Fold this sequence. Notes:
The structure holds 2 protein chains of 2 kinds.
Chain A: H1 2-11, H2 13-25, H3 47-62, E1 66-70, H4 79-82, E2 91-93, H5 101-113, E3 120-125, H6 127-131, H7 145-148, H8 152-163, H9 166-178, E4 195-196, E5 203-204, H10 206-214, H11 216-222, H12 244-259, E6 263-268, H13 279-289, E7 294-296, H14 318-328
Parallel strand pairs in A: 1-2, 1-3, 3-6, 6-7
Antiparallel strand pairs in A: 4-5
Helix pairs in contact in A: 5-12, 10-11, 12-13
Chain B: H1 6-22, H2 26-39, H3 44-66, H4 70-108, H5 125-140, H6 150-158, H7 171-179, H8 186-218, H9 227-256, H10 275-281, H11 284-301, H12 306-325, H13 329-359, H14 365-387, H15 391-399, H16 407-437, H17 440-446, H18 449-467
Helix pairs in contact in B: 1-2, 2-6, 3-4, 3-5, 3-6, 4-5, 6-7, 8-9, 8-16, 8-18, 9-14, 9-16, 11-12, 12-13, 13-14, 14-15
Amino acid sequence: MKRFAVRFAVFLLPLWMVLAVYLRYDPFEVVYPRDRYYSDPRIAYNRESQSTNIFLANHGKVGYDSFIFGSSRSLAFLCRDWEQYLDSRGTYHFDASGETLLGIYRKVRFLENRGVVFRNGLLVLDAETLEKTNAGKGIVFIPHPKVSGGSYLDYHLTFLRVFVVPKFLIGYLDYKANGHVRPRFRDTFDMRDFQHDPITNDLFFISDEKEIREGPERYYTRRKGTFYKREGGKTAPSPPVIGETQRRYLQEIQKALSRSGGEGAVVISPLYDQKLLNRQDLVVLEEIFGKENVHDFSGVNRYTRDEHNYYEASHYRHAVARRIMREIYMPVR
Amino acid sequence: MIFHSPAYLLFLAGVFVLSACAGRRRWAVLLLASAYFYVSLGSPHLTVALALVTGMSYFAGIGLTRCATETGRKRLFVLGVVANLLVLVFLKYLPFLSNALNALLGFVSPAVSVPEPGILASIGVSYYVFQAVSYLVDIYLEVQEPERHPGYFALYLAFFPKLLQGPIERAEALLPQLRIPYTFDYDNVRAGLLMFSIGLFKKVVVADRLAFVVDAVYGDVHAHAGIPTALATLFYAFQLYCDFSGYTDMALGSARVFNIRLTPNFNGPYLATSVADFWRRWHITFSRFILDYIFRPLQMRYRDHREYGTALALLLTFLVSGLWHGAGWGFILWGLLHGTYLAASVFYRPYRKRIYDRLGWEDGAGRRIWQGTATFCLVCFAWIFFRANTVSDAFYAVTHLWDIRGAAPFFVTMGTKLAIGTLLIALILAVDVLHGRMDLVSRLWAMPRWRRWAIYYALLLSVIYRGADVAVDRFLYFQF
């Protein structure tokens, strides 16, 4: 048995070495708790993982009571813009890439279990987010086990499996050795620059905004292919997506937000596709959250007509979100 | 806990270490591990069902040797078999039976209906119930002594590598192995790990990748017809084979590290030269079960009707096979198709040699290729009914197999997946062909270590990289 054990250990030696590198660098910031997250601008982090860990690190000091939920589209909404309309101790952006209704429901439950007293909630939704009730797979979408109750082993192995893919591993080691990403590895890493607020967890897309500011025509000409031609008023509305499961999640979310006297606002995003949210779904949302708290910006309107309101065909700009917030909130201060 | 999960690998390693240290109490470690494995599925009623089947069969087995009269023996035997089958029917077929009954009652009186039970998970139940039934039959026929040690008997039914999808082990093959005290065997551990890795490769790299094409077509049969359906069916044939044989390899490999040899369940099934030959190579332990316990008794019963009796016995046997696979008309039609193929061969076989002689076609590679291709086509045709979501989908696929419209967009969107899938299928077939002609494993052991380890690493890395992005995560035969 000893002979077998030694041979097996030797056989796995290359994997032990890769594991050692992974544990040494913790490239995806999921292995160890840390003082500062988003330490490497080139790594595409799991947004939910970062959001959960940053919340846990800060909540004791800050005492968050107001939260923005949603997918990456909710990143347009910055807590520092939202705060001016609220009476709040601390605002937090608790989003996830490819967020689902199940994900938001689990986050709200996670926060309640950690003693959060909700004052304000902003749900940034669209038909896609409303429809999905299953968590995604892969390092960008896998939910944090503390939120989902899922397996820690599967969670960590998801990241480790990506790390050992030769293209990433070699590219990462090369990047660490040289301090920059060489052209042949550019599609493996995130080449955009962004600014992260370590308290509110906001992400501000510096490079995109800078490029637009310095030369908007150049920016949009270079991305002409991504801005597909739309049919305007002829675009069919989304089919209804809120079923029994989604309705239950929405009801639970609303109950949690209002349990301690808090208020929830729902924003239906002004997406580039100009698809109007199905009226049946809108009625359900108004029934649950109250008509005055549901704000539908889907379809053809002043936001969606102008492609300059978007970074690409999926995400709209911070300026759009500011205008939406001005429209839906009366200033409190 | 599924075989191709990291949790299972940790579990297997832990059980291996504990059982190696347990000495004569190894059976207790393996039994507890098996119980934990089953409980981890999260369906308490399954554990109750396993305990019930184990208890009933254990006491029935001992009771059969203590019965004073033949009538008493027969009654106890029938009671034991029926009780076990009732557990299976209750868990597996109740929803289907109530739906079918309600459909019939609808013709009589729409107001009358039986309540519809919720769907209960029945993972593994078929396999250990069949094992229990074969155990009681063998004791009744006095070819097997009952196992008096309750621990060994419980382990015989519950042994975790074969608990969820078989193989269906005979008592004479498995029970003696469970009694042997454990000593570390380097060759068995090495062979077991290799078998497990090959199974993992077949499941994660081959089967799950072929699933992309299969699910795309069979998920919307009406949007695809002709060549896409034919290709998806071909892919499904290998997806199912690699999924199930991959699981079996992992089961056999897991057992082998404990020095326990389970019965192989596959032997190059798509190299079969007749449908009968196919069933000697596909799901072997299940085929043997239905041959020994259903076909032979029926054939004996209808022996006065000669070929017609044999043909009827085959039809009924494969009707049962279809029913066993699932509570759905698709599975029943699939079973009946195979029964029809085999029944027809009873009449066709005596004339086959005469036809080949008339055509001047000697028994050689050419004839075997023809026979293999024809058999494969018949088997694939039946798979359409097995895989389609509904019977109407299956009939649509079958009646539109020659429709070539709309094939071009399919090749555009699925081109890469089709190419990779084809290469993987060619690899599987090549290995099956070679394995039939030589002992590949012995050749592997004879290689220099660096070459062996290179092959192991190729297997390991292909599983790791494939597992990084696979979306499908189930074993197909779990549902049976």
